[in-house]
Amino acid sequence: MRVLLINSPYNKEEKIRKYRRVWPPIELLNISALFQENGIESDILDLNATPISMNKLQNVAKNYDKIFVSSEGIDRWQCPKLKLDEFISIAKNLSERNEVYIMGPTVSAFPREFLVKTGARAAIIGEPELTVVEIVNKGLNEGIEGLYFIKNGKEYFKPRKTLLDLNKLPPLPYEKLPLKKYKYELMGEKFFLFEASRGCPYACKFCAKRLMYNLGYRIKKAEKVVEEILNAYNRGVRNGYFIDLEFNVNIEESKKNVRRICKLLREERVDFKWACQTRVDSVNFDILKEMKMGGCDLIHFGIESGSERIMGMNGKLITKRQILQAIEACKKLGIRTVGFFMFGFFGEKLKNMLETVKFATSLDLTYASFNIATPYPGSEFYEMVKDELENFEYYDKEVKIEIIKKVISLAYKKFYLRPKLLKTLALTPKILDSINLFLSFSKEE
């Protein structure tokens, strides 16, 4: 049995193309590790890192018994891709001559529609690792959790209850991915993704986590995390990003694990820098100091809005004071920060958007990213507004999309063209290269 795992590429017109960003599909690497443990031969084809023509792809596919095509890698499980033409084209073309299965967050939201569009044999709903291995071992079986298929006009689906134990994953076969291709514009090359936990205990209404993460929260032990980092390090990786929804959750078990990861990395004395995403109310100076000593170089903070009323209405229960304290602590420790903001929430008016712009430009962030609040299928936001939606990409019943785009353009210009920021960055040309990427979004589309 030979299996091919495919990570489909971004559509050429997507904004991600403006970034010099290529992130690895580590969920496919997990699957390949499980296959290896089960004596199943597999390969990974990451079409984001190594694009090939459809003709060549069809020729490659001839050598495999089963093919699994992912619509989005794990880096997009929280915020699924909105344009899936490339994915549909690949799955449809391969389905004509091969046994093809499809997976990903958008597939999980609309499995029947994507089976019809692609002609694939079945869809994997939710986190894919265990389901994919069971399909290869058992075939198309209605008893497999997480498997959706249609037979004689009847739909079959059994929700996945047994979740992947992150601590029992076999060693990851890094050699199956083109490690030299991966990079993150804010961390550089020699880059890879790591996972220290899966899931999130918080309830932000704009997050589509339930499609892929279920409702639980699982921690990968520090020793396992650092072992994976060192294995990648020995293959040339020097920069990493923890893809966890929240790297440092505000519970004792999580904080203890984060401290342990940092301690182990310090003890190894490796030249390894890393980034993560966490909440402003989950960090303080002491934990940030330990993270810095363990190699933390950059933190993503989801700030979302400058209006506490809007944050509260959308389940982001943080305060401006907490935001200021977290950013100030990072600044003192020399940890770079990215603040993420969104416009077009349910209940948001133009004055609230302008309040966000004013607040963002008052913060001492290293970078800021301004985006449209998207009602992703699978999110509570989507359920609240789905009957009014004309386009999945935005909700504009309160402020029209043309105005939202103008506000975003204004936010980018006001943030990155501040005299104080420009003066600070004038002596750091490498950072200016990264700033140019963000400025490309200041143009209205």
Q: Could you characterize what this model shows?
A:
This protein is an alpha/beta fold and 445 residues long. It folds into 2 domains: 2-157, 3-Layer(aba) Sandwich (Rossmann fold), CATH 3.40.50; 183-442, Aldolase class I (TIM Barrel, Alpha-Beta Barrel). It contains 17 helices and 15 strands. It has helices spanning 26-37, 54-61, 85-95, 105-109, 111-118, 129-138, 210-213, 222-233, 252-268, 285-293, 308-313, 320-333, 350-362, 380-385, 401-416, 419-425, 429-439, and strands at 2-7, 41-46, 66-70, 100-103, 122-124, 147-151, 154-157, 191-194, 197-199, 217-219, 239-242, 273-278, 296-304, 336-343, 367-372. The chain has a 7-stranded mixed sheet with strand order 2-1-3-4-5-6-7, sandwiched between helices. Strands 8-11-12-13-14-15 form a 6-stranded parallel sheet. Helix 10 (285-293) packs parallel to helix 12 (320-333) and helix 13 runs parallel beside helix 15. It is globular and about 60 Å long.
